[in-house]
Amino acid sequence: MRKLLLLTLLSLFIGSSFAQHHDHGPELTCSKAKFYEEYFKSAQEIIQTPLLFDYDVKFYYIDIEVDNNSIYITGEVTIMAEVVAAEMDTFAVELLNNLTVDEVVYNGNALTSSHSNDEVFIFLPETLTQGELFSVNIKYHGTPPTGGFFAGVSHSTGWGKDVTWTLSEPFAARSWFPVKQVLEDKADSAWIFLTTDENNMAGSNGLLTNVETMPDNKLRYEWKSNYPIAFYLISFAVSEYQEYNIYAHPEEMEGDSILVQNFIYDSPGCLENYQSGIDNTTEMIELFSDLFSLYPFHEEKYGHCLTQLGGGMEHQTMTTIGGFNFGLVAHELGHMWFGDNITCATWSDIWINEGFATYADYLALQFIQGQSAANTEMNNIHNSVKSQPGGSTYIPPAEITYDNVWRIFDGRLSYSKGAAILHMIRYELQDDETFFQVFHDYTEMYADSVATGLDFMNVLNDVSGMDFTDFFDQWYFGEGYPTYSIEWSQNDGGMFMEITQTTSKPSSIALFTNKMAYKFFFNDGGDTTVYVHQTENVQNFTFSITNEIGLIQIDPENWVVNSNGSITTNVEEHNSPVRFTYSPNPANDKLNISFANHNNNEKQIGVYDMAGNQVLSINTLDHSITLEIAELPSATYLIQVTDGINLSSKKFIKVD
User: Fold this and answer.
1) How far apart are CA 428 and CA 422, in angstroms?
2) How far apart are CA 349 and CA 135, in angstroms?
3) Domain 480-575 is of which CATH architecture?
């Protein structure tokens, strides 16, 4: 279906690119030109002309000259699209004012255009209607702005070689080609033709279909991709490279292979230095194809272009990368499933990209290097999350601005907490088969498209049969993490534990209700683990455990982001026949009390206000009893229970 549409659009392109040019003059700019010159005001918030949403991009054809020792760009881009508005008479794209538009061609005719506030407005000689296909060719040149990690186009030197590369995420594609920077509008396909000096090689997305000899001792590298692609994943890297290729063999391909194509500096010792790190890629592709789904771009390739980038950027089918350490290679490869095949629908949901890719790094460690290496990684992730008390993985839209890009790529929240959320979901499920089935169903449902965090939650709910709404409210949208403190004792009736939970950001989340594990180590050398969902900040639990406990460990396998408070044993009550638990706390109209020792001794229960006045009294022989407290004023009270010899006391809060 994509190929048929591409052929139709190519026929439009051929007509517009090679027909005679006619200048229609300034009259076609009409009065709208002045309006669009004033459309944007100086602001850091992200404002895009509504005209960008009048069409759906089908195809980008980028044909530009690039060099390894300069960031200067010159060439042309043809955008083929379909009208989605009822009518469209103005075609708009984004392009920084630093670049100059030389000519705009539509249906073989040259048009004048308005270029202001980093957008180009092209006034069409005819009104197009919904469903019509069209193409516009834009010739341009210029030097993009420099500086910063997200500069768009960067230049540096490594291993004695000049190198130039792009990084367009999140808003910098417009710094080097005319584009529609809307996440939900993936192009169905893209061609990236890169003309450069014959000593260079130029890498990009898709398959290298041809290397054409050009005038002036230049070569044109012709890359073509027939997979849908988000605007910011289109890329190039150019340097004096050598090519090093290996192959992955996912089980699902039944003996067929995936090309892993690597452009590495053509410098003595460079390939040898990085080769073992590069070679890890094939095993990772095979692993992720099993855990998630088959590598989504298997009909084309995966690969790397080595640059001086401080890290990596997951350009679809060919990551731009600054080195080949195990975690970085795994992270960027993980993006092929999560970020490229499925892209966040909004920058607020960058977790769909970065949290998942970070967890892919953890999974690669677990299944390839071993659980010990993975444990170290998860411990580092948790420590990162807990280095500050607040912060949400979901990014409120108001925080996403042109001058706040690092909020999107916050390492603690988007990456570490994002990965920790997936790890905790895996723990909540207690079933790896179900957990990875969620990934399979999710990648199948949203392949070649975009998704939000709630889209993933809905798939998770459907596959697991569980409801993760509260979990997402607390961990994805909420801020902070819990701290657990324990007071415990043990007698012939069992083990009694009072768990107090406080949170690091109580103004956001007062209580986390996720599953928590507590491991009891017995003095005879044995152990057991119990699991609870805490529903109150202070909650009592009774366990039928008579083996003498010597030590309690909270979250023994480090599944949940949390801190440990105090763990104390109430020695005075160790043999007390009046040990009791109660719930709820806070309480509204009823307070349920359960006694740990199942004997028939009479217990006297007294409820006192904080001034010491008794407000309620009752005697009972029962194992459990419900106190009616609806008439008590809202306040903190003390429960005292005695059998005439031993006494136990606890506080509760009465609310209306």
Assistant:
1) 10
2) 32
3) Sandwich (2.60)
Mean pLDDT of 468-490: 96
Q: What is the pLDDT of residue 120?
A: 98
Please write the tens of the pLDDT for every residue from 421-448. 999 999 999 999 999 999 999 999 999 9
Confidence at residue 44, expressed as pLDDT on a 0 to 100 scale: 62
Q: Two tokens at 586?
A: 């806070």
Read off the tokens for 148.
């910063």
Pairing of β 319-321 and β 342-344:
unpaired
Report domain 577-656's class: mainly beta
Query: For 89-133, what is each residue's pLDDT tens digit?
Result: 999 999 999 999 999 999 999 999 999 999 999 999 999 999 999
CA 185 to chain centre: 19
For residue 395, give the 3-state DSSP assignment.
coil
**Axis crossing angle, helix 432-445 with helix 453-464, rounded to the nearest 10:** 130
Amino acid found at 203: G
- From start to end of 277-402, where are the E strands? 302-306, 312-313, 319-321, 342-344
CB atoms within 10 A of CB 296: 23
- Residue 11: what pLDDT? 45
The closest of 20, 12, 9 to 109, measured between CA atoms, is: 20
pLDDT of res. 647: 80
| Contact by Cβ (8 Å): 262, 243 | yes
Nearest-CA neighbor of 361 among 471, 287, 298? 287
For the chain, what are the domain ranges? 2-239, 342-475, 480-575, 577-656
Give the pLDDT band of residue 24 (cuts 50, 70, 90). Answer: very low
26 burial via Cβ count (<10 Å: 0-12, 13-18, 19+): exposed
Whether the domain at 480-575 and the domain at 577-656 fall into the same CATH topology:
yes
Both tokens of residue 55?
Answer: 């069409």
Q: Which pLDDT belongs to residue 580? A: 75
Query: Does domain 342-475 sit in CATH 1.10.390.10?
Result: yes
pLDDT of residue 592: 85
- For residue 301, give both structure tokens: 């390739």
Is-contact 650 639, C-beta < 8 A?
yes
pTM for this model (two decimals): 0.85
Residues whose CB is less than 8 angstroms from the CB of residue 193 and which lie 6 or more positions away in sequence, other chains included: 61, 62, 63, 64, 220, 221, 222, 223
Which pLDDT belongs to residue 261?
98
SS (H, E, C) 172-229: CHHHCCCECCCCCCCECEEEEEEEEECCCEEECCCEEEEEEEECCCEEEEEEEECCCE
- In the DSSP assignment, the letter for residue 20 is P
pLDDT at 651: 83
- Angle between the 326-334 and 351-364 helix axes, to the nearest 10 degrees? 140
CATH code of the domain occupying 2-239: 2.60.40.1730
DSSP per residue, 520-555: EEETTS-EEEEEEE--SSEEEEEE---SPEEEEEES
The answer to whether 421 and 476 are in contact (CB under 8 A) is yes
Of the candidates 252, 350, 326, 352, the one whose C-alpha atom is nearest the C-alpha of residue 293 is 252
Q: What is the DSSP letter of 26?
A: G
Q: The tokens 């075609």 sit on which residue?
A: 91
Crossing angle, helix 351-364 and helix 371-385, to 10 degrees? 150
